[in-house]
Please model this.
Amino acid sequence: MPATPLAAANPAAAAAVALLALEQELVPPDVAYQAISEHPDDPVGALTTANTGQSAATSRARLYAAIADSLGLPYVDLSAGNVAPDIDLVQRVGADTLTEYVAVPARVDGTVQLAAGTPSAPAIGELAEQADHATVALADPAAILAALRRIERTAVVDATVDSTDEEQQASARRRRAAAPTIALDEASNLGWVRDVLNRAIDQRASDVHLSLTSDNHLRVAYRVDGELRPQIVTDVDPVRAINTMVTAAGMDIGAQGVPQSTSFRHTTVDGRRYNVRAELLPTVNEAEVTLRLLASGGLMTLDQMGLLPAYVKRLRRATERSDGLILVTGPTGHGKTTTLYGALMEVRDGRRKIVAIEDPVEYRIDGITQVEVAPNREGGLGWLQVISSALRSDPDIMLIGEIRDAATAHAAVQASQTGHLVLATLHANNAVAAYARLAALGVDPADVAAQTVLVTGQRLLPKLHSCATHRPVSDRDRLRLVASGIEPPDLVHYPAGCDACDGQGTRGRVPLVEMLSPDQTLRDAVAAGADEGALTRLLSDRNFLSFADEARRLLDQGLAAPPDIAARLREDVVNLAAETAEGER
Model:
C-alpha cells in the first residue's frame, strides 16, 4: 500500500489525522492514540483498520471525505458508480506522469475532475490544465494508484480537527450557572445604561454587545478575557432598551438601516474614567449595538504584558533603530496593537517624532501624533493617502495599524527603506508566515528580507486561575497537542472554577508569543523566495522558540489549559497538515 500524504513519521501530522478520525467517530481517543503511536508511518491505515465497527474500505472513504471537506476540496470516491476514469485524458497527460504525481482525471456525473493525492502541489495545477482544465479534487492515494493500474482516478490528503470535549462542555455549564442578572427596569431613562457599563467594567469586560433576538428579546453579553459571557436580562422593553443605548451614545435614532460609529466618555462611581466607542450595525432583527470600553491611561508597558524578559529586551533593541520594519502578526483581538504601543511608549522621549496611523484611534497618547483612517466615511482619509501625507511630515517612527492590502504593504516597506522605523500589524498565522503574506501582497522578497528587523507572532490565551486542578492529560487533548507540535507532560492543569474567578476557572489572559530576529542566513533564504516550510526548517536549527515551544512552557507552568492552547493553534495544525501532504508526495 502506498504511503498516504500524511504519513512518514511525522507525529504532528499523524495526530492531525487521528483528530479527524475522532471527529468522524471512527475510533475512541485511546484507540486512536495507540494506533498512531504504533504505526506513525501510516496513520490512515492504522486508524481505519482499528475501527472494528465497519470495513476498512468504508472507514478510509469516510476519513478521506472528511479531510477533503476540511480543506474545502471536492472528494472523489473512485469506487462510486457515478465516477469513471477518462481514459483519453489519461493517455493525453501520460500514465507515467500521473502515477508519479498520484493523480488521475475522472468524470464525476459528467464533469471532469483531477483526483490527486497532493492537490496543492504546483505540478497538479499544470496537470489539471492539460486535463481539459479539470477541477482538482482529493481522493485516496491507494485508490488512485489502483485506478491508474486499471486506468481510473485520484486522491490527496491533509488533516486537522476541531472538537468539543467534556472539559469544554463542563466549562460552558459553569459559565451559564455563573451568568449574572441585569434588571433593566428603567429603560425609560439613562440610569440602566450606566448600570450596564458599570457591571461590564466590574467584570473586566472589553466589550458590551446588545442585540435583539428573532423572538424580540434583548440579548446582552460581555466579552471578558476574549470570550462572550451572556447576561440575564429582566423587566425591559427590548426595542426601547436598544433605542435608549443608541441615544446615550449620541447616535441618530432616526437614521434607519445605516451603520453608525461614535464615542463618549463614562466615569464609574469610584472615579475610573473610560472612553467608550460605540458601533451600531443594522441587522435583520432591527439593530445591534457594540460598545468597546477603553480605560483612560489603560495601555500596558512592555514589562506588564507577561512577555519573556528576553523578548522585551529584543523589542527594546529593535525600537532603538533608525530604520527597518517591525511586524506583529496574529488574529484580531489578540493584542497586536497593544504590543506595538507598549514598544512606542519606551521611545516616547521627545527626541524622535512618532506618527501613528490607525482605524480607529482607540487610545489618545501625548507625545505621539495620531491620525485616524476612515476610508468608508464621507470625507474620510484612506490608508495610502494618510501614509503619504505622514511621510511628508518628517517622522522618525511610524506605526501603521494594519497592513491590509498591497498598496499599504508597499508603502510600509518603502517607508522603512527611506530612513524611517516602521511598526505594523499583519494578519498571518505565525511569525514565519509574515514573509509569505507580504510576498502574496506583491512585495519583493528581497526588500522584505533587507528591511525586516523583528517579527512577532502573538496569541492571547485564557489564563488559568489558581484554583486549577493538576491531573493526567486526557487522550483527546494529548492528540490535539501533538497535532500542534507539542509533546505534553503527563500531568497538566485544567480549569476548576471558584468564587474568586466567577466559576470560570480562568482570569485574565496570558500571551503566547514567538519572536523572530532574522540573521543573514534567514535573510538570504527569504530573498531567494524560500517558502514557509523551508524557513521553518531553517529556524529549527537556530534556537527559535516557536508557538509550540512556548505552549509547552505555559503547560509546564500551569498558565494555560490544553483545550485552550489547542484551539488557538488550530490554524497552524491545518497548515502543518497541508505542508506535510506536499512533502510526502
